[in-house]
């Protein structure tokens, strides 16, 4: 029983930050119809920026609890700086073009940002240890867990609820929904589609960055951290269905539990377990668990 609880807690903890990152990926695809290969790089930028902001906060003698504020500000800074540069400076020139071309463009962005992070932060790893001890330890049965992991689960619930509420219960969300269904009709109704694209892309980057920022205390922030993240994030959105918030949540939970089971029972199959689950889902639901098959437009 203790082993089952451990697997469940580890799976949910892993799924929490993965859901935040995958949510940004599926939002960008749902609105802009772009399969963003560079999404993992935004995660890495958030992690590096959080390391820098937390270090600066410590040098300024901020209270330890304010390191969480520093990580949030890091994610905001990444979204505010990177979103206009990438969306206005590059992506908007390729809207409406072939999907394969957009994939190649975002892959080129990924390669560029990998080198940019090395130029800015170097090749040595960064460690953000201060926030990880803020919530102490939580005892579950005979096992003791780090409280920060449970706080991350709470953060994922808050972020997911906020995005769902924003899309389904606000006027801006209704406008975004119109653009998702038909950008041409939205433009004919007087909606500034370009502004909607910019806003959706900025939110997507912010979600990737906040995922990286609040995961930074749990990992070693170093070059290459974006590669594994984008691969697993794609698995999540493919399982759940591209463009679906509910699919991102369920997909992250499935991936997290599959990985946790593999880690505790057959560690060598950790990465393989994610792909086998994805393959099984696609065998029965090629469009993903929460995505309906759409009629092809001629």
Automatic annotation (TrEMBL):
Q: What is this protein called?
A: Branched-chain amino acid ABC transporter permease
Family annotation (Pfam families): BPD_transp_2
Its membrane topology is listed as: Multi-pass membrane protein
What's in the keyword line of the UniProt record? Answer: Amino-acid transport, Cell membrane, Membrane, Transmembrane, Transmembrane helix, Transport
> Transport as a keyword?
yes
Q: Where in the cell is it found?
A: Cell membrane
Family to which the UniProt record says this protein belongs: Belongs to the binding-protein-dependent transport system permease family. LivHM subfamily.
- From which lineage does this chain's organism come? Bacteria, Pseudomonadati, Pseudomonadota, Betaproteobacteria, Burkholderiales
Concerning CDD domains, the annotation shows: TM_PBP1_LivH_like
Q: Indicate the transmembrane segments per the record.
A: 12-35, 42-59, 65-83, 95-113, 145-165, 197-216, 228-255, 261-284
Which top-rank group of organisms is this from?
Bacteria
- Whether Transport counts among this entry's keywords is yes
